[in-house]
Structure formats: structure tokens, C-alpha cells
Specification:
The structure is a single chain. By secondary structure, the protein is an alpha+beta fold. It is 35% helix and 19% strand. It has 6 helices and 11 strands. Strand 4 and strand 5 (45-48) form a beta hairpin. Helix 2 crosses helix 4 (111-124). The longest helix is centred in the middle third of the chain and has 21 residues, at 63-83. The chain is elongated. The two termini are 29 Å apart.
Length: 181
Amino acid sequence: MATTATASGEPFQFPEMYNFPPFFTLGTQPEPLCNNTQNQSANKQYVLCVSLELRKRSRQPNESTWKEQRRQWCDLVLAYYRHNRLFSMSLAEAVTEPPFANRQLRRALRVDVLREIVDELVKQGNAVWVGAKNTKDTCLVFWRKPEVWASMIHQWASERGLFNSVLTVFELANGDDTVGQ
């Protein structure tokens, strides 16, 4: 199982699927260079333009397999971002680092495939696109949904009798009452 070091010192344990090359390959589609036959009547030779199958990485073509693979990617993103306490993702930068790039396999997701995964996280309520309209280049990842955070903060304030008290965001994040929370 692959790991990465974190700020806390505890390595993130990647699932076994992370070291399975097709998890990153996500299917292939042939891309023809040429699909016509040309007749050179001067010397009565036929030049056959052969379609070479250049392999272009794309997402899994089988829809049910892609659905399961996308679910696994969503779970991995949420677990990785939670473990590392990350919340902001620039897609162009993200595809060069774990969990979207596996250096051992020398594989990485394409930005367009990652965008589909983030779109799924947005549908689930675990992410939101930010930045310029319709660019889908940057997102916020909610490893806990906002309503779960609200419930946790409400419960925490209730347990400490802090209703009708004014607290700064700094106090909520770094105060003595929040250590270990």
C-alpha cells in the first residue's frame, strides 16, 4: 500500500486500488490519423492511408465501470483531503501530485477526468466550484458537508455553554476549548 507523509507526520494509507495501473489509465480510445484511401492514377499505385491507433487516455468507456471507478475516486479524494486537512483544489496543480498522480506507476489523471470526478463531488454536496464563472479550474472540497460542520459547531457550543457568546474564527479554530476537536 502506498503512503504519503503529512504535516502531522502520520502517512496517508492509500487503498490497494491506488497501485492498480488501470485506476489511472481510465480506458483508451483509438484516435485515427487518417481514414481515407487515396488513388494515385499516374502510376496506378494505391496509397493506403492506414489508421494508426494512437492511444489517448480518457475516462473508462464502460458506464457502469466508470460509475464505480468515479465512486472510488470520490472516496479517495475525501479521505485524502480529510487526512491532510486540505480544502482547496486547483485542478491543474492537483493532477501533478498525490492522490491524482502516482509516481511509482508513472501515471496521473487528466484534468478533464478529474473535472468529472469533482463534478460528482459537487452533485453529492462535497465540493463547490469557485473562481471565474464556468471555468471549473478551482474548487473547495468539503470532507465534511457544511451542514455537518454546523451541527458539530452547534453541539460543541452547547456542551460548553457558549450560546449568546461572541467568538472569532481564530478562537473557534485555535482556542483552548478546540484542541483535539
